[in-house]
Design goal:
2 copies of one chain form a homodimer. Chain A is α/β, with parallel strands linked by helices. Chain A has a single domain, classed as TIM Barrel, CATH 3.20.20.70. In chain A, strands 1-2-3-4-5-6-7-8 form an 8-stranded parallel β-barrel, surrounded by 8 helices. In chain A, helix 9 links the parallel strand 7 and strand 8. In chain A, helix 2 packs antiparallel against helix 12. The longest helix of chain A has 18 residues. At the A-B interface, helix 8, helix 9, helix 10 and helix 13 of A face helix 8, helix 9, helix 10 and helix 13 of B. Chains A, B: One of its GO terms (biological process) is ketone body biosynthetic process. Chains A, B: Keywords: Lyase, Metal-binding. Chains A, B: This is Hydroxymethylglutaryl-CoA lyase. Chains A, B: Belongs to the HMG-CoA lyase family.
């Protein structure tokens, strides 16, 4: 691992996006061990939980406990997903550093996912921003534009809608706005075009590329996003997760393969690949029998591999 | 499928590279059905066989019969791999349109794969060129630089060696020279750098990018090659194949995912994706129980998908 500053930020979403997509509930102690292993590899931003009612997502019932533990890891940005104001209250009470609120560019997906229109979600975001300003002004708020590249319910999503929504969430007070390929429909040309337009609109407030590997294009899309200036990438160890409300969608980008790609390209991630591969151990231990993905873990690092210096 | 000319050439290598890497031998009639299905999807270049002694690769014992059938498909470029002059004689006698000779940039891999040094392979190529000039001057000869991005035996391969070898094979009379990531060690930065250098050296004689998905970077590497002007891509239906002499190497780029990527980007391949997916049927029928790969076949085409126009 290089002593120099990372050039890209890998934001691990497995403990939230991954765990909420599988049927089994990982015991809290296993979650903490897994998060510790991710941290030990050099990962410095983790979406550790989702603040949603436990009756909807029992996998996330221990969100506050998980956050409490994650806050003990020095230098780690502890993120949580919140679907609404109520979730934001709980997340802020738990002490997270960063909130992420999904706002869908597809009206159909927005209604199916959170039973709100896009405009209603922007208003919800504005309420969350006010709450944050009152209670925890240091906390960052990201709005992740989901279904930004297409929707399994409505099909194509107009690029103008995505650009409008990215501007609207920043206007409403979000610190950054990323784009999510919730449904695995993105292609590299579209990724370059859309991130380019969004950056022209909101500049450095452009947040993460959250790509899926549904049709095998996950890394190509991350490369495309990198090419147009994106420097934060969401991914999930073992490719765990997807979106339970977007039928047919599956497969977050695999953190191991993503980190391998950047490190092999000479782009510093701050992550030690061998330790990252070792972090699959506690994941597997906490979710016995759950299939994990990833080509680099299967093939191993190439002979004579040299990480970014 | 668009009526306009394709913008990239997808060169299907499954019937050669794929079939010679699996243990089972596909019956000839099944091979022909599979090739017909590939052709029906719009594929116009297929590496249909390898001309090697049947005792070494019994899967390829019917090479001449397969070529004979493939030659009946109008507009199809019928390619065969030959490891040496003897193979070239047989391939030319069978009537192929194009020969491909693997020439390894790694001395260690060259010795292990064909028991010749790189220089000896360049000399072998020159003999094949003379034979071609005498017997079948219309036939094209490609020299595929294998282990161009790294070698499982010797580790790193000097980029200067690759550029030198690409120039040497063109000097020896090859019509084109492509670069192969035989061992799945390439990364997009390296792909851009090396193809850029090779194009600077041999210009339009630069041939195919033959990428592997060993560490999940196959499509990202194809995108990188496209970005620097490469317009021919080798891939294998169902990701069948690899290199039996490069331990740990596996996984050709999946044709279905590659075609999906380009078509989704608006880059015409000339291939109908639904028919391409249907071509997995005869492949599976001829190789029962053999695992096939591909994310697009699993996920299906996105709702409202529009191919390149």
């Amino acid at each position: 691992m290089s002593s120099q500053a990372p050039e890209v930020l890998i934001s691990e979403v497995g403990p939230r996006d991954g765990l909420q997509s599988v049927k089994a509930t990982m015991p809290t102690t296993d979650k903490l061990r897994w998060i510790d292993a991710l941290y030990a590899s050099g990962i410095r931003e983790i979406e550790v939980a989702s603040f949603v009612p436990a009756r909807l997502l029992p996998q996330m019932a221990d969100a506050a406990d998980v956050v409490r533990h994650a806050l003990t890891l020095p230098g780690l940005t502890v993120m949580a997903l919140v679907p609404n104001l109520r979730g934001a209250e709980a997340a802020l009470a738990a002490g997270v550093h960063k909130l992420t609120l999904p706002v869908s560019a597809s009206e159909a997906h927005s209604l199916a996912n959170v039973r709100k229109t896009r405009q209603e979600m922007v208003e919800e975001l504005a309420r969350i921003v006010r709450l944050r300003d009152e209670r925890a002004p240091g906390v960052k708020i990201e709005a992740g534009i989901s279904t930004a590249f297409g929707c399994t319910l409505q099909g194509a999503v107009a690029e103008d809608d995505v650009v409008w929504l990215a501007a609207a969430v920043i206007e409403a007070g979000a610190d950054e706005s990323g784009l999510s390929d919730t449904t695995g429909m993105a292609n590299p040309a579209q990724v370059r075009r859309l991130f380019h337009r969004v950056r022209a609109e909101i500049g450095e407030r452009t947040g993460a590329a959250h790509m899926h590997n549904t049709r095998g294009l996950g890394l190509a899309n991350c490369l495309a996003a990198y090419d147009v200036g994106v420097r934060t990438f969401d991914s999930s160890l073992g490719g765990l997760g997807g979106c339970p409300y977007a039928p047919g969608a599956s497969g977050n980008v695999v953190t191991e393969d993503l980190v391998f790609m950047f490190e092999a390209m000479g782009i510093r991630t701050g992550i030690d690949l061998n330790r990252l591969l070792a972090a699959r151990g506690p994941l597997q231990a906490g979710l016995p029998g759950e299939p994990l993905y990833g080509m680099t873990p299967e093939a191993g690092l190439p002979k004579g591999f040299v990480p970014a210096a």
